[in-house]
Amino acid sequence: MSEERSPIKPQKRVISVQDISCVGKCSLTVALPILSACGIETSILPTAVLSTHTGGFTGYTFHDLTSEIEPIVAHWRMLGLRADALYTGYLGSDEQLALMGKFFDEFGGKGTIVMVDPAMADAGKLYPAFDQKFALGMRDLVAKADLTCPNLTEASFMLEKEYPGDQAGDYDQAYIEQMLRDLAALGPKQVVLTGVTFEEGKVGAAAYDAQANSFDYYFTERVEGYYHGTGDIYSSALLGAILNDKSLKEAIKVACDFTLGAIKRTQALGTDPKYGVDFEREIPALIKELGL
Ligand code: PXL
Questions:
Q1: pTM of the entire structure?
Q2: What lines the ligand 1 site, CB under 6 Å?
Q3: Which of 28, 51, 53 to mutate to test the pocket of ligand 1 (most atoms within 8 A of CB)?
Q4: Which helix (H) or strand (E) holds 41?
Q5: pLDDT tens digits for 94-147?
Q6: I want to staple 190 with a disulfide (CB 3.0 to 4.6 A). Which of 38, 147, 168, 177 is the partner?
């Protein structure tokens, strides 16, 4: 067993703040298994319970848990709990955004990475529950993060720019690099932009490290169609890789390969994409790629 795999090395802990969508494989039901597979303890702060996610289903239930957030955090304060990362995804309201701002102020810093995945939009549109005011509230939360990983739609909403489209040729590399710089100027030192394409048949991620002033790209083949929950799968794998000491450049590759693997399995199965992708059977490949 290598030194790195020594069981005496302290285990890292993430606190993931997202909803529980009971069916549909997104938010906590993907963050938990993926981060666990990466060897990371995943504590959760559930923001709401829904029967399914809101993308493509009708008649879903929604039970808001906002009133639980402060009491849960108060108990953690009493325990002196700390985490190696705070990771927020889908948040349900302006009030939850404000509560997360306070949570970051108290539990972030001192070596705790704050990652905000502004899960609120895709394919040029906000998810049904959100409006532009929420998008700007999310921008203010992103300002408090160390790392953020929007898709191109979310980035456009936060920067109040028109969505440029999702086809090769809709924008160029200079456009993406300006967008990354603008996102970093909000606050986060590291920015990962997903759903980037410069070439037909390819899609991937662009990363910017503001301290190093460096850009990295990673592309894979593009699978047509809309596969639900893949943004959450991507961000969970990204954080899992970073907490396993991968560089940002390595982490965007790990997350892209993992997400693509899950999408391809689902495409081959031909299941309804609103029920999520088969990321579970891609987990052994993720573990291998991380050298765990
Ligand atoms: O995957 C993002 C997500 C998370 N949680 C809920 C959602 C969505 C996207 O639609 O509806 C409740």
A1: 0.97
A2: 19, 21, 26-27, 50, 53-55, 90, 119, 127, 229, 231-232
A3: 53
A4: strand 41-52
A5: 999 999 999 999 999 999 999 999 999 999 999 988 999 999 999 999 999 999
A6: 147
Give the neighbor-by-neighbor strand order of the sheet with 202-209. Answer: 62-64, 41-52, 13-23, 85-88, 113-116, 147-148, 190-196, 202-209, 214-221
Domains defined along the chain, listed by start: 13-275 (3.40.1190.20)
Residue 5 pLDDT grade (very low, low, confident, very high; cuts 50, 70, 90): low
Round to whole Å and give the CA distance between 291 and 254: 11
Assess whether pLDDT exceeds 90 at residue 159. yes
* Cα–Cα distances in angstroms (integers) from residue 179 to residues 88, 89, 164, 183, 227, in the given order: 21, 21, 12, 6, 25
Instruction: Give the number of C-alpha atoms closer than 13 A to the C-alpha of residue 59, restricted to the C-beta side.
Output: 0
